[in-house]
Design brief:
mainly alpha; abc type-2 transporter like fold; 4-stranded mixed sheet
Length: 372
């Protein structure tokens, strides 16, 4: 076995060619790298949505005032709500308790007087707290409808309020879910596939044959990781094209920034997978540990679905060692904002630093496994 001091480009190319052939002969690898990303993107683009539409609510109109009727009509004229009208709140409460309605908007009898003193509250919004997310959305949408109605009333007197949402003007959850899904996809490709590389060699007994050749440890690492690095870039390119042209997620940044961020994220993803494979030497154990330490943190602790700022402080601290946290932030910035390098550089340096730690640990352990 080589002591690792000599490095041969010829041997490296031979190892890379061997790994490329192994990838082409393994249908499961191509399935994970090509088919799985498409399935995940379709799920998050169409099946998973944080946008609420046609939510059943009740509107209790307790007055015949013309302005109150106008506001009630505003709730009926939006795609967000399916309105059940009533004359009193008590008539709607049984349906709220039964889960038929997700909220009740009460327009009180003294609505006209409340408009002149909005600090006292203009309407009452009751929501079903058994589903907190839906309750928050119902309350937020109802308040927005009220604010828009008040703005229209003020426009009659010459005052116009024009709300504007930066970076996601249509307020579509797909536009930030799809970039986050790309990070999850790349985590699966980078960590899971690489976790099986060295473990597969040990299981098949080919690692002993590799040890008898004059290849060095750096050549083994690069020979196995470069093909998966290139495979990850190809998978990311395909997934990004689907996101932009099929799912209509705007890309305000450049493709070069996107590929650079992907390249830097693949360093910790591949390094983590390699470290897992070196430690486990078993494909089943490696795959399970890759899912637990790679996929689950990327899904739950990256800010993809759950806001990091709302997590307990020990969990917030833990997210700093999750590479997907920085990749999700970078992807959402590239797609929704643009090339903001002041935000990119800290995230990219963090991914590079975590990747360096993984590679150093993997090289040290592989060195011991081969030469000890």
């Amino acid at each position: 076995m080589s002591n690792g001091s000599d490095f041969s480009g010829v041997r490296l190319l031979a190892l890379m060619r061997k790994e490329f052939l192994q990838i082409l002969r393994d249908p499961s690898t191509l399935l994970i790298a090509v088919v799985l990303p498409i399935i995940i993107l379709f799920l998050f683009a169409y099946a998973v949505s944080l946008d609420l539409e046609h939510v059943k609510i009740g509107v209790a109109l307790e007055t015949n005032d013309a302005q109150a009727q106008s506001l009630a009509a505003s709730f009926s004229g939006t795609r967000y709500f399916m309105v059940t009208p009533a004359r009193t709140r008590r008539a709607l409460e049984p349906q709220l308790e039964a889960g038929i309605l997700r909220g009740i908007v009460v327009i009180p009898a003294d609505f006209a007087q409340r408009i002149t003193h909005p600090a006292q509250g203009v309407i009452q919004i009751l929501t079903d707290g058994s589903q907190p997310n839906t309750a928050n959305f119902v309350a937020a949408y109802a308040q927005n409808i009220l604010l828009q109605w008040l703005s229209d009333q003020q426009a009659i007197n010459g005052v116009v309020l024009v709300p504007r949402f930066w970076f996601n003007p249509d307020v579509e959850s797909r536009r930030f879910l799809v970039p986050g899904a790309l990070a999850v996809v790349m985590t699966i490709i980078g960590t899971l596939l690489t976790a099986l590389v060295v473990a597969r060699e040990w299981e098949r007994g080919t690692m002993e044959a590799l040890m008898s050749t004059p290849v060095s440890v750096p050549e083994i690492l690069l020979g196995k990781l470069v093909p998966y690095f290139l495979l990850g870039l190809v998978a990311m390119s395909i997934a990004s094209l689907l996101a932009v042209f099929l799912f209509r997620v705007p890309l305000h940044g450049s493709w070069w920034a996107l590929l650079l961020a992907t390249s830097l994220f693949l360093i910790p993803a591949l390094g983590q997978g390699l470290l897992i494979s070196v430690l486990s030497k078993n494909q089943f154990i490696a795959s399970q540990f890759a899912l637990i330490s790679g996929y689950l943190p990327a899904f739950m602790l990256s800010g993809f679905l759950f806001e990091i700022g709302s997590m307990p402080w020990p969990v917030r601290w833990l997210t700093h060692i999750v590479p997907a946290r920085y990749f999700v932030s970078t992807l959402q910035t590239v797609f929704l904002v643009g090339n903001v390098w002041a935000l990119f550089i800290p995230d990219m340096l963090s991914m590079l630093g975590i990747g360096a730690v993984f590679f150093l640990l993997a090289r040290r352990k592989l060195h011991k496994s081969l030469e000890a």
